Each structure stands twice: as structure tokens, then as C-alpha cells.
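#lab-general

N.A. 3:47 PM
ok so I finally got the sequence cleaned up, no stray characters, all 126 residues accounted for. can someone with queue access submit it? mine expired

B.Y. 3:52 PM
send it over

N.A. 3:53 PM
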Amino acid sequence: MPLPTIVMIIIIFSLLTATLTLTFAIKTVTSQRKGLLQRKAILTSGTSAQAVINSIQQTNAQLDNQPEVLLDLTVTKPDGESHHTIVKTFIPIVNIPSFQKGCVVEVKYMTIAGEPKFEVVGAYVP
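B.Y. 4:20 PM
back already:
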């Protein structure tokens, strides 16, 4: 194969790889931004409820040095209806003692696309 052909193949492959990487990065950032806006909307205009923490488990992720946790919650809505959910959220490290098994925490919820979405009041939202 002549050298110009090899160089063209390398350039095309590089451009294709860069385009795919950039597209993936933009989709990831857009998705994360949408999730953050949804969380903020639930916390600002959602309905308040009380939740009992059944368990708390730390993941390996952090956001601005705040640990990500999985909270297994039993939520009691104001009408008395009980709902089990697992919320993945970031808890400020100074608030971790308030988020232990058996503790009651305030949550806010909103129905989005026919499904209730819950957020913990006091969670870290950048």
C-alpha cells in the first residue's frame, strides 16, 4: 500500500474516533445535567414525606469529596401510604451521622412519567 493511502486511513480513523468520543462525552454530560435539574426540581417543589432508613451503603463514587450512598428507605406519604424505594444520592460527610439505619429523614417526592421519584432533603446537590 502506498504511504499516502496509509496516512489517509490513519487520519480518517482518528477523525472517526474523535467524533465518537466527543459524541459520547456530550451525551453523558447532557444526561447528568438533566438528572441534576430533575433532582433540584424535586427538592424545590416536591411533596414532603418522612422516610425510615432501612440500610445505608456507600458506593465507590464521590462528588466534590461527598460520598455517594444507596439509601434503602420506607417512605410514608402524608396520606399514610407507605412506599419502599432505594435512593442513590450524595450525602455531605458532616451529615452522615444523621443517615444511619433506623433514622427518620425528610424526603421530597414527585411523580415523573407516571413513576414516583424521591430525593432526600439534606443531600448534596451541586
